[in-house]
Amino acid sequence: MRERPVSLLEWAYNEIKQQLFIGKLQPGEKIIVGQLAESLSISPTPVKEALNRLVAEGLMITLPRRGFMVKQLTMKEIHDIMNCRIMLEVFAVKQAVHNFPKHPEIKKNMLDVLKKLENIQTHDYVEATQLEQVYHGAFIQLTENQKLIELYNMLFGVGFAFYVYSSSNHPMERHRIALNEHKLMYEYLEKGNSDALEKLLRTHLEKTMEFYETFLPAFALDGEQA
Fold first, then answer.
1. Which residues fall within 8 angstroms of residue 159, CB to CB, at 6 or more apart?
2. Angle at CA 124, nearest 5°, toward 123 and 128?
3. Of 1.20.200.10, 1.10.10.10, 3.40.50.300, 1.10.220.30, which CATH number belongs to 8-70?
4. Which of 124, 126, 185, 195 is deepest in the core (most CB within 10 A)?
5. DSSP bridge partners of 61
6. How far apart are CA 110 and CA 134, in angstroms?
7. Domain ranges of the chain
8. Mean pLDDT by 10 residues, the chain (226 residues)
9. Which CATH class, in words, describes the domain spanning 75-219?
10. Alpha-carbon span 98 to 102, nearest angstrom
């Protein structure tokens, strides 16, 4: 457990979110404030405030007189989110290519991520997925469009990503294939090849969506959540 900052609310918020990321709290799981507060060794008040904040972010839902529940998306919602992600990333290509030479810090970040992905351990699903999210987030940052960045983070930020982390034993084959695609993505950015990058991104994300559809149904609903 990490060192507590001055604000217990912030600390509780970060701890609970991390538990979502690593699958300790899974989609559909009911949360009892008192029990969670006890496990974090703090009072219920900051825990409840943190949970309400996560409700506002779409990670939790409130249960009348029964506490909270980890948000469980439907497969249609997951599919819709991924379609939006494809539209955003393909739209971002031309501006990202144009701005790429101006951002050595983003270049370095992307290269660092690629190096880490090459050295990822065979069963380190969580880190692999987190690194891929950082890589694509860096690509979106190249647009210099703050509203686009905010929209992208909202759609494919913590509210969706924890679904990926919840499946702790999904195959690593897609991550290995994706690494080569990520390397090619960087190469096209360097060459300024917008057309090839658009085609690659669309194919890359469509494959990712197919992959999610294979292993996520166990963590998603068929219909609307009650």
1. 57, 58, 59, 71
2. 125
3. 1.10.10.10
4. 185
5. 69
6. 8
7. 8-70, 75-219
8. 71 89 82 94 95 88 89 82 92 98 97 93 74 92 96 73 58 78 97 98 90 70 54
9. mainly alpha
10. 9
